[in-house]
Amino acid sequence: MAKELPKNYEPKEVEDRIYADWIKNGYFHSAPNPDKKPYTIVIPPPNVTGQLHMGHALDDTLQDILIRYKRMKGFETLWIPGTDHAGIATQIKVEEFLRKNEGLTRYDLGREKFLERVWAWKKQYGDRIINQLKKLGASCDWDRERFTMDEGCSKAVREVFVNLYNKGIIYKGNRIINWCPHCRTALSDAEVEYSEHDGCFWYIKYPISGTDEFLEIATTRPETMLGDTAVAVHPEDERYTHLVGKMIDLPLVGRQIPIIADEYVERDFGTGCVKITPCHDPNDFEVGKRHNLPEILIMDEDGKINKNGGVYEGMERYAAREKIVEDLKALGLLTKIEKIKHNVGACYRCGTVVEPMTSKQWFVKMAPLAGPAIDVVESGDITFYPPRFAKTYLQWMYNVHDWCISRQLWWGHRIPAFYCDDCGEMTVSKTDVAVCSKCGGKHITQEEDVLDTWFSSALWPFSTLGWPEKTKELEYYYPTSVLVTAYDIIFFWVARMIFSGVEHTGKKPFNDVFIHGLIRDDKGRKMSKSLGNGIDPLEVIDKYGADALRFTLATGTAPGGDIRFYWERVEASRNFANKIWNAARFTLMNAEGVTEVKLPEKLENEDKWVVSRFNRMVKEVSENIEKYEIGIAISKLYDFIWDVLCDWYIELIKPRLFDTNTNEATKASARQTLVYVVSNTMKMLHPVMPFITEEIWQTLPHEGSSIMISDYPVYDEKLDFSDVESDMDVVIQAIKAIRNIRAEMNVAPSHKATVYIETEKTDAFKAGVEFIKKLASAEEVFVSDKAFTIENAVSAVSEGAKIAMPLKELIDVEKEKERLNKEKERITGEIARVNQKLSNESFVSKAPEKVVGAEKEKLANYSDMLLKINESLKKLG
Questions:
Q1: Span 358-372, mean pLDDT?
Q2: With 90 as the cut, is the pLDDT of residue 589 above it?
C-alpha cells in the first residue's frame, strides 16, 4: 500500500488508469444473485451516431451516482448500457454523407446497398458515445451492452408488433398524420415541437351558389382551400342556420361544396364560419368523417401541390400560398389580412414545419393501452419524483391519440407485414413469409415502411433482459428500479415504456421515475447547435477532470429543475477536489501508526464533535439520495468536507498533533479519528467523485480491493454525541465572531488580545479555552456567567455568548483614528466629484447610459464606505 500522494492532484494521470482497473477487475459486471436484492437501471439509449453532450453527462452522472451508491449499500446492481438506432437521425446523416462525398442518393444505391452503408457507419461511429461515457466514469455493465436493432431487441419488436396486431390494437388505415416534407416521413404527435411564430389570418369571401351573398372565412393556411370539401357553422348560430344545406362556389377551384352544421365550430371565434379540409387538418378530418365528406389530398411528399391543386400543381406549398393570396386579391375575394402570432409545429429532428395530411399508415390504438398505464401511476405503483410530473404524464395519457408508428425510412425495424403480389393477401408474421397462406403464391413483398424508433426503445426495460424469452435476468432484474430522464421525453419515452411494460410483461417497467431538468447555458438558453452555445463535456473533462464535471452537474440539480452551466462553477468544483486532496495528504502525513479504519476507545470533545457531525451527515445524505434529492445530498457532503472537516476539525487537532507537550495517546487518538473520518467521507463522496476518492482511499488503511465495492457508511446511534456537538458548535461560533472583529479592524494574527466571554454555557466555553486561544489569537480567555465591566471594548454576540475585547489590545486607537479620518477625507472628496459629474445635465444627457450607470454605482459604493468609516470612528470614540 503506497503511503503517499503527489503534491498536486492531476486527473489526467489518475482517471484512465483507475477506470481500466475497474474494468479489468469486473467491478461493473452483474449477475443474478439470490443472496442480494437487485437494483437495476436501463440507460436512456443515446443515438448510435451521436456524441456526448451536456444532457447525456447530467443524466448519466445521476444514474451512476445511484448505481454506485446502491452497489456500496450491498445491492446487486445492474446498469444496462446501449444505443438507439435513431431511424430518422441516422438515415439523414448517412444520406448527407453520400450526397456530399459521392454525389449519390439512397435511391441510387437501392435499399439493400444503402442499409449496408448504414451498418458500416454504425460500426465505424457507433462506439464513440460509449467510449465517451467511459471517460465520464460510468459504471455500466459493458458486458451487457445492447443496441435497439440487435438480434434480441429485433425479436422483441416483432413479437410485440404481431401480438398487438392480432389483438386488433395495431391497424393500418388512412388517417391524418404529421408529415415532414424534408425527412419525407410521418411523425407521431410527440415528435412535433411547437413554438410561437409570426403569421396571418387571411379573410376570404366564399360565394354562396346562385346568390350575391358570401360567407367570410379566416384561415392561417390559404393554400389548403384547394382541398376544402365543406364550410361549417354552428347549428345554433342564428346568423347562418338558414344557409345550412346550401352550396358554396369554392374560389379558384371551380368546385361546389356544402354548408354544414357542426358543434365543432366556435360561434364567437372569428366569423363563426370554418372551412373544412379533411385531408389537411386533424379536427377537419373528424368533422369530415361525421358528415361523410370527400377527402381531397392536395400535397405530395415534398410539400408541393399535387394534381388536385389544379393550376397550382407543382408549386411548393409556401409559393402556392403567395400565388393564391395574389389571385384572391385580383378577384376581390380577399377582404383583409390580420397579423397574428400562433403556435406552429415543426419536425423535432430537422425543424421543418410539418404538414398535417392524410396518409395510409400503421397505427397503435391507444385507448386499450392507456387505461392500465394510467392505473399504475394513479395507484402509486409507479412513483414520479418530483410528483408534479405525474400530472404531466397523466394529462397526456388521458388525452392521447392513436400513435402513428410507421415511418417512410429504410433504416429501422421493417414492419413485419407481407403482401402476396398474386392475390393481395396481407400476412403479419413473427417470421419472414415466403408462401402466401391464401393462394400459395410465392411472389411476396414485405412492407416498405419501418417502425418509429420509439416503438423499439419503448421495450427497452424488458427487451434488454431477454424478453420474450423467460430468462433468469428478466426474472431477477425486472421490473427495473428507477428510470432517470429529463422531463422533455416524458411523452416520447416514459409513457411508451409504461404502457408497453404493462401490456407485454404484465408488470410495470420500473418502480420510480426520477425526472431532472435540462442543461442550459449561463444565460438560461437551451443548448443547441443552432445557437452555437453547446459545451462539449469532453472539453470540460480534459481541462478539469471528470470528477469536477460530475460534481458541478450533480450539485446544480434540483428535482425537475433546469440547470445553468457556468465555467466558474466547474473551477469551484476543481478547487473542491484540490481541497479534498490536500486534506488527504495532511491525513497521510499524520497517519503514523494507524493500520485500520476504526475509532479509538477514547475520544476528545473535538473528536466526538466531528464524528457526531459525520454520523448525522451520513443519515441525512442517505435519506436525500433515497428521495432522489441528489443536489441537496451533495451540498451537505460539501459543507461537511469543506467546513467541518477541513476548515475546523483539522485545525482543532493540530495542537494535539504538533505540540511537544501532548501525550502520545492523545496524538494517536487524533490520528485514528482523522483517518476514520477521512476514509469514510471518501466512501460517502465516491458515487459523486469516483476517481479522486478511489485514488485517496487506496493510500489510506483499508480493507478490500476497491472503494467502489466497499460498504457505504451507515448511521450509528452510538456515535450521536449531540451534547458535545452543541457545546463545540457554540465555541466555534465564538471563534468565528472574534475572527470577524479582528478582520474588520485589520488586526494581524500575531497580535494577541484578551477575550472576555459572558455566557450561561460556562462549561462548554471553559472546555474550549485552548481552542479559542489557538484559533482566535487570544492571549487569555475569561469565561463567566456574569457581565464583565471593560472600558472601551469592542464586542460581538455569538450563539449563547457575549464577547468583549479591550480595544487598546487590538489597535493603537489614535493611529486608527488618524487613518480613518484620512480615508474619510478621501472618500468625501470622491463623493463630491461624482455628485458634480451627475449634476451636470450635459454629461447625463449625452454620455452613454453605461457610463452614467457606472458613475451612479461609484456614488453608491463611496456612500456605503463613508457610512462604515463613520461607524468605526464612532466605536473609537
A1: 94
A2: yes
